[in-house]
């Protein structure tokens, strides 16, 4: 959805993919079957609910402060997120793409994760931990 005047999102219990673009919503409902979440240009959301089946998470230009632990997460893409300062360990993560997020200073990842980043972001990571 790309609707700047929408303030809430309806609940759909079987929803598997949700893309939110440039909306003024303040929270996202809990969707137990959600597998892919895309958030672009949504400044009012600072945290996300736990989604037990989430596999893909894209966060672009957002004020989200932290990312929940998602044991099923395989792809995490963070772009232009200045409030996130730590990426925790996700056991099934395969792809991590971090760009233009200069405040990330701690990264805990599996040593098999494919990481893509820009020079400014990689230079701010002070603590990098690899877990087998």
Number of helices: 1
Largest sheet: 6 strands, parallel
SS class: mainly beta
Number of domains: 1
| Major beta sheet, strand line-up | 1-2-3-4-6-8
Tell me, rounded to a whole number, the average pLDDT: 87
Q: Whole-Å distance between the termini? A: 39 Å
Share of helix, binned: under 10%
- How many individual β-strands? 9
Strand content: 25-35%
Low-confidence segments: none
What would you call the shape?
globular
Integer-rounded radius of gyration:
14 Å
What is the succession of H and E elements? EEEEEEEEHE
How would you describe this structure in keywords?
5% helix; 132 residues; mainly beta; six-stranded parallel beta sheet; 1 helix
Molecular structure report:
The chain is mainly beta and 132 residues long. The chain has one domain. It has 1 helix and 9 strands. It has a 6-stranded parallel β-sheet with strand order 1-2-3-4-6-8. It is globular. The mean pLDDT is 87.
SSE topology:
Elements: E1 17-21, E2 36-40, E3 56-60, E4 75-79, E5 86-87, E6 95-99, E7 106-110, E8 114-117, H1 119-124, E9 127-131
Parallel strand pairs: 1-2, 2-3, 3-4, 4-6, 5-7, 6-8, 7-9
